[in-house]
From TrEMBL:
Pfam families xrefs: CrtC, Lipocalin_9
Domain AttH positions: 73-249
Protein name in the entry: AttH domain-containing protein
Organism: Symplocastrum torsivum CPER-KK1
Length: 391
C-alpha cells in the first residue's frame, strides 16, 4: 500500500523532469536535484489507455516479479535491519520505481528508431541509516528505461537502474547492490517464506472510488547477509529484509493529506503490516488496512477497526521543520498483541525531490501474554505538505 502512495507523491513532483529523459541525456541526482516549484507545474501525466485495478486478479510467480507496463506506476521496494557481529546496527532502503509516460510507443520508421527511445522512466531511492553514529545517508537517481540504463524482468528476476540493482542469483535468493560516493550496499537476501498477497488476494484498495487500487504482494521474511560500507569502512552484516512489489494506475483523494505505514518482523517469526491514510479532517480513510502473517506464512487481514495506534512523542526536523510521530503504542486486541516502539534514531528524513520520513524502528511488548520484540521500518508522508498541494 504505502509504496503505491509514496510513488504517486514522488511522481507528482518529478515526472516533469523525468519525462525529459526520453529525449535528453541520462540524468543522475545524488541529492536534492529537482526544482519542486517547477515540477509542481509540470506534474500532470495522462493515464488514459493504461489498465486500472478494479478487482482481484491472479498473481503468478515468477511472471509477476517483473514489470507490468500496462499499468502506469510500479515499484520494487526493499528495507532491512542489519547488524555486525559486534552489535553495530544499520538500516537500509533501496527502492526502484517505474513510470509509464504513455501506454504504448507509436511505430516509427527505421530511420527514426533509436536505442534511447522509450516511454518508460525509472527512478530510485537508496538510504543507509548508521545507527551507532546517528548518521543518515539518502540518495536518488533517475534514468530512462532504454539503452540498458534501467529496466525490469521476471526471468531471471532483475530490476536495475545503472548499478543499483536487484538480481536473482539462485532460486529464492537475490543480490541487492547500490553505492554512492559515501555509502554502499552489497547484500544477499534469501526468502524463508513465499510471497504473500496483501489485501483481497493481492487487490489493495486505495480509496472507495472504483479503480483506485493496486496489485500488491510482499516477501516479509528474508534472511540477509553481506556488506555495508560507510565512508570507506566496510562492515560484514546479517539481518532481515522486507520486500514490497506493487503496480497500478490510480489517483488519490484531495482530502488525503498523508499516510503512516508500518512493517514489523517479530522475534516469534510472525510479521505485521499496517497503513493509515490520513485525511484533512483528522480521520483515517476507511480502506486503511493491514495484515498479520504467521510463522508458516498464513495471512490474516486486518481492517482499520482492528487496531488502535497512539502517538506518544514527536520529533521536529531541523531541515524541513516537519513534526513527525516518534513513539507509538499499538494494540491489536484480536491478536492479543500490545507493542510500544520508536525509531532507532530520530533523523531518518529524506530531503530529496520530495520530503518524507522513512527509517528503522524497534518495538517491544507482549502477544498472548508472552514477551515479544520487533524490528522493522516506518514511512510517514504529508507532514510537510498535503497531497492536494502536490498532486
Amino acid at each position: 500500500m504505502k509504496r503505491f502512495l509514496a510513488f504517486i507523491l514522488i511522481v507528482g513532483l518529478v515526472v516533469g523532469s523525468i519525462a525529459l529523459l526520453v529525449v535528453q541525456p541520462q540524468k543522475v541526482a545524488e541529492k536534492g536535484s529537482a526544482s519542486v516549484a517547477w515540477l509542481a507545474d509540470n506534474n500532470q501525466a495522462n493515464s488514459d489507455g493504461f489498465k486500472r485495478v478494479f478487482s482481484p486478479s491472479e498473481i503468478v510467480f515468477p511472471r509477476d516479479l517483473g514489470a507490468h507496463e500496462d499499468y502506469q506506476t510500479e515499484w520494487w521496494y526493499y528495507t532491512g535491519n542489519l547488524e555486525t557481529s559486534t552489535g553495530h546496527p544499520f538500516g537500509f532502503q533501496l527502492t526502484i520505481f517505474r513510470r509509464g509516460l504513455t501506454p504504448s510507443i507509436q511505430p516509427v520508421s527505421t530511420d527514426n528508431r533509436s536505442d534511447w527511445r522509450t516511454n518508460q522512466v525509472y527512478f530510485a531511492h537508496f538510504t543507509i541509516s548508521d545507527i551507532a553514529d546517528k548518521a543518515f545517508y539518502p540518495a536518488e537517481r533517475f534514468s530512462r528505461g532504454a539503452a540498458g540504463l534501467a529496466g525490469a524482468q521476471a526471468v531471471p528476476y532483475r530490476v536495475w537502474l545503472q548499478d543499483w540493482s536487484f538480481t536473482e542469483i539462485a532460486p529464492g535468493q537475490v543480490q541487492l547492490a547500490a553505492k554512492t560516493d559515501q555509502v554502499a550496499l552489497d547484500l544477499v537476501v534469501k526468502e524463508t517464506l513465499p510471497p504473500i498477497l496483501q489485501g483481497d488476494r493481492g487487490y489493495s484498495a486505495k480509496s472507495s472510488e472504483p479503480g483506485n487500487a493496486s496489485y500488491y504482494y510482499s516477501i516479509v521474511h528474508q534472511e540477509t547477509t553481506g556488506k555495508v560500507t560507510v565512508k570507506g569502512e566496510t562492515f560484514e552484516v546479517t539481518g532481515l529484509t522486507w520486500k514490497d512489489h506493487e503496480y497500478s494506475t490510480s489517483s488519490l483523494s484531495a482530502d488525503d493529506v498523508g499516510w503512516d505505514w508500518f512493517s514489523l518482523q517479530l522475534d516469534n517469526d510472525t510479521s505485521l503490516m499496517l497503513y493509515l491514510l490520513r485525511r484533512k479532517d483528522g480521520t483515517i480513510e476507511s480502506v486503511s488496512s493491514g495484515s498479520f502473517i504467521t510463522a508458516d506464512g498464513t495471512v490474516q487481514p486486518l481492517n482499520n477497526t482492528d487496531w488502535q495506534l497512539e502517538v506518544l512523542d514527536t520529533w521536529k526536523s531541523p531541515t524541513s521543520k516537519a513534526q513527525y510521530p516518534a513513539k507509538w503504542r499499538l494494540a491489536i486486541p484480536k491478536l492479543a498483541l500490545n507493542l510500544e516502539g520508536q525509531p532507532l534514531m530520530p533523523n531518518q528524513e529524506l530531503n530529496l525531490s520530495t520530503t518524507y520520513w522513512e527509517g528503522a524502528v524497534r518495538f517491544k511488548g507482549t502477544q498472548a501474554g508472552k514477551p515479544v520484540q520487533a524490528q522493522g521500518y516506518v514511512e510517514m508522508t504529508g507532514y510537510t505538505s498535503t497531497l492536494a498541494n502536490v498532486l
